[in-house]
Design brief:
Elements: E1 2-6, E2 14-15, E3 18-19, H1 21-37, E4 42-46, H2 57-73, E5 77-80, H3 87-90, H4 94-98, E6 102-105, E7 115-119, E8 122-128, H5 134-141, H6 148-164, E9 171-177, E10 210-214, E11 220-223, E12 226-228, E13 245-251, E14 257-263, E15 270-275, H7 277-282, E16 293-298, H8 307-314, E17 318-323, H9 336-340, H10 345-356, H11 364-391
Parallel strand pairs: 1-4, 4-5, 5-6, 8-9, 9-10, 10-12, 15-16, 16-17
Antiparallel strand pairs: 1-13, 2-3, 7-8, 11-12, 13-14
Helix pairs in contact: 1-2, 5-6, 10-11
Amino acid sequence: MKFLHTSDWHLGRSFHRVNLLGAQAAFVDHLVEAVREHGVDAVLVAGDVYDRAVPPLPAVELYDRALHRLADLGVPTVMISGNHDSARRLGVGAGLIGRAGIHLRTDPAGCADPVVLADAHGDVALYGLPYLEPALVKDEFAAEKVSHEAVLGAAMDRVRADLAGRPEGTRSVVLAHAFVTGGQASDSERDIAVGGVEAVPASVFDGVDYAALGHLHGCQTINERVRYSGSPLAYSFSEADHRKTMWLVELGPAGEITAERLDTPVPRPLARLRGRLEDLLDDPALSGREDSWIEAVLTDPVRPQDPMARLTARFPHTLSLAFEPEGREEDDAASYAQRLRGRSDQEIAEDFVAHVRVGAAADDAERAVLRGAFDEVRVRAASFEDGRQESTR
């Protein structure tokens, strides 16, 4: 039996204020075509269908079109809610939608109620575990602790108990949305901790043939039977080196797994550039980056004039600009308040100028401009206070 494993669509999300709805629609087109081309028996969507609990209307319309197109293919789809989704909203009409072959699993209480499919080798039970917020589902699962490991472990105990009561040889697949130990995070994941307490061991999925995971945006293999599909699009520059894919998974007659990565459409490549502005503008090695979305970090000792305008003249799709002057030394020992104690407004402003220019202090003309500005503020403040006092007499 062949499965197409995907997750983290984040419909409605933008990329540094760039609307991605068109790119997300192109992904849905690609998904539908991949189902046809590869003879897929079921589609698995492991959570974060939407980017937020109350998604914008265009995102809902795209989701609606996607469901209709998947239903028209006659290929079952199993979809769980992620931490970005509103489980109750996503699950509205689940019973009716299920009649069309779109199986929404958003209620934690139903985690041991599988979608059962069959092929020439017998039954395959597909269990959907929606994102489990520990504080909200602790009582449902009678978990000993309020932790992701405790509630997910309790949910998997229910899955294994249900599986044990099914005919011998029944194969099994679990969809889950969580951070599993060994996974590599990126900047675009939110709301699940990526270290220590909130991570769950891969062993929590022992006893099933395949665990189709969502949440982490990089496609990765935790082990042969536990995999993240990753997001179909990049949602942060930390994903610049990601290869965005879906997993085409084949489940053999004895539960053996083979998996192949299918590339998803890239709306525009990402590039992270670092260096002095003039070097970036003149570097011939960057000649292939003009069509990329750009994150630039400038290291000029002195902040250059009109950096964004000059960057976009060569790299018209520059979306992010930051400054990290070379040679800067940070004093981490003293707090900001401690460093300012006992200094005048004028001194603080002059220190700021020297800080952003890495030791190049304000000259006489600049000090005069700063002094004049502070004097003007004091005059206006005094005039305001005098007028306020006069009005109260």
